[in-house]
Amino acid sequence: MRAKLRSILPLLLAIYIIVDTVLKAKNIELCSSTGCELAGELLKFNSTYLNYLGIAGALFLVILSLIKSKMAETLYVVVAVAMVAFETLLITSQLNLNPEVCKFCLGVYSFLLLILLNANIRVFIYTIPTIASIFVAFSILSIPKNKKLVTQNGLYLIASKTCPHCKKTKAFLNKEGIKYKTIKAEDTNAFYFAKSLDITKIPIAIEKKDDSYKVLVGDKKIIEHYSKKAPKEEQQTKEPTEPTQSQNQFQPKLNLSGDEGCTYNPIEEPSCESEDNSTGK
């Protein structure tokens, strides 16, 4: 029975992936989880080619199962282990991007585990620690998650509890009665947002108004902007409501020239230029 399963299981896997490929060509998605879509966007090629790769691997296992030789049996196990490891990487990347289970991918993974278990129980047991280590490795990596930092209109402040410049900014905003929402500097998404704009200091103020965004870096720039003089300054520098050909009305308004802040590192303690500006609790 085990000998028959060596051919039957990979053949069923190939059929399973072929069905998904045909449905995908007709814009019917079996693999439709958000995590799966995000992982697909990270690929350097169309995700459909992963289906072709899976079909080729499954059919190769079928061919190897029909060859009666020790080398073919060994190669069968090696290919099965490689496919399990590859699919484990895909599954863990999906779960870390967006904790959502893709039923199709889990189906492929289940087939591969059954194929390896049927091929060689000892190798299957030896592979379990490798699978576990991959899941652990991805879980401890600081990978951006699929979540929104800024959702509603208002003021958001990327800050750290140990940053004196952040404390000073918070103290000012609290004193002036300006409402804001704190985004922890330790948040990976916040760090990569700042990195994408080449921002290396905190605090960072993000003001959202509909589809317009304003970003200010450093306590000096933030306090100047939200001080009592700010309304006059805004009136003088107010941009036209109608966009010109060289200006898009949805373009974020950035002010990245602030220099009063701590070096932004989500892992280590903030490195600050000076402690003179430290206030607040």
Q: What do you see in this structure?
A:
- The protein is elongated and about 80 Å long.
- Helix 7 (164-175) links the parallel strand 1 and strand 2.
- It has ten helices and eight strands.
- The chain has 281 residues and is an alpha/beta fold.
- The protein has helices spanning 2-25, 34-41, 48-66, 70-97, 103-119, 121-140, 164-175, 188-196, 219-226, 230-236; strands at 154-159, 181-184, 201-202, 204-209, 212-217, 253-255, 262-263, 271-272.
- It has a five-stranded mixed β-sheet with strand order 2-1-4-5-6, covered by helices on one side. A three-stranded antiparallel β-sheet has the order 3-7-8.
- Residues 229-258 and 274-281 have low confidence and may be disordered.
- Helices cover 54% and strands 11% of the residues.
- The chain has two domains: 2-140, no CATH class; 154-234 and 244-272, Glutaredoxin (3-Layer(aba) Sandwich).
